[in-house]
């Protein structure tokens, strides 16, 4: 009987020891959870590192718009990464938005007129020192020193080019002028290219 009690105690101690070891050892589920957490942290770290590297590269690379003689026409600042939109500033201080295909994205919007038939001087709500294009891809500008005036507007061309009569409403506008490359520093956008220095 003594042997049986000893065997029973040994078996009990053995079972207690196994239970204690099992409690101390992680289960397969907890190991998988732990590995998943580590993998997630590594992915986050990799993404963060990739963004940091991309920002560092973009801060070191200074794109510019150059003419056919490789002369800088405008400095470029990336404003939207997803569709490669740049804010361009000519060496003369005029600004516009441009994409990587050299499309001027700054639209002249509505053109306002003092006459009733959309003729004569053209006015816009755009800011001073703006370079803009119309629906026909003509380049316009607002002088750097242009003040806005409250004028009685009698007609306007909408963005499709249709002339609409207005009742002489007072609107705050600036004069819109056809591009003058001597003033703006931008000649023909089609002969330019984006260069990364």
Attribute tags:
2 domains; elongated; about 35% strand; about 200 residues; about 30% helix
SSE topology:
Blueprint (H helix, E strand, L loop, with lengths): L1 H23 L3 H33 L2 E4 L5 E9 L4 E6 L4 E5 L11 E3 L8 E3 L6 E3 L5 E3 L7 E9 L5 E16 L2 H4 L8 E4 L1
Antiparallel strand pairs: 1-2, 1-11, 2-3, 3-4, 5-9, 6-10, 7-8, 8-10, 9-10
Summarize the biggest pleated sheet: 6 strands, antiparallel
* Order of helical and strand elements: HHEEEEEEEEEEHE
User: What general outline do the C-alpha atoms trace?
Assistant: elongated
Please tally the helical runs, counting DSSP H or I stretches of 4 or more residues. 3
- Helix coverage percent: 25-40%
Mean pLDDT: 80
Distance between the termini: 93 Å
**From the helix content, strand content and strand pairing, which structural class follows?**
alpha+beta
Beta percentage is 25-35%
Record field, number of beta strands: 11
Enumerate the spans where pLDDT stays under 50 for 5 or more consecutive residues: none
What Rg do the Cα atoms give?
A: 35 Å
């Amino acid at each position: 009987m003594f042997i049986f009690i000893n065997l029973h105690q040994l078996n009990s101690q053995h079972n207690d020891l196994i239970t204690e070891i099992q409690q101390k050892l992680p289960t397969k589920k907890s190991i998988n959870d732990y590995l998943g957490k580590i993998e997630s942290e590594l992915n986050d770290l990799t993404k963060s590192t990739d963004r940091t590297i991309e920002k560092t590269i973009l801060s070191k690379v200074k794109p510019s718009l150059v003419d056919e003689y490789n002369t800088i026409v405008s400095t470029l600042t990336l404003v939207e990464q997803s569709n490669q939109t740049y804010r361009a500033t000519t060496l003369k201080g005029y600004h516009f938005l441009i994409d990587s295909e050299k499309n001027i994205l700054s639209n002249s919007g509505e053109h306002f007129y003092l006459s009733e038939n959309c003729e004569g001087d053209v006015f816009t709500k755009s800011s001073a020192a703006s370079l803009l294009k119309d629906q026909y891809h003509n380049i316009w500008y607002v002088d750097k020193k242009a003040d806005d005036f409250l004028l009685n507007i009698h007609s306007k061309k909408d963005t499709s080019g249709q002339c609409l009569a207005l009742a002489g409403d007072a609107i705050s506008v600036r004069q819109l002028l056809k591009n003058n490359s001597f003033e703006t520093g931008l000649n023909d956008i089609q002969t330019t290219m984006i260069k990364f220095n």
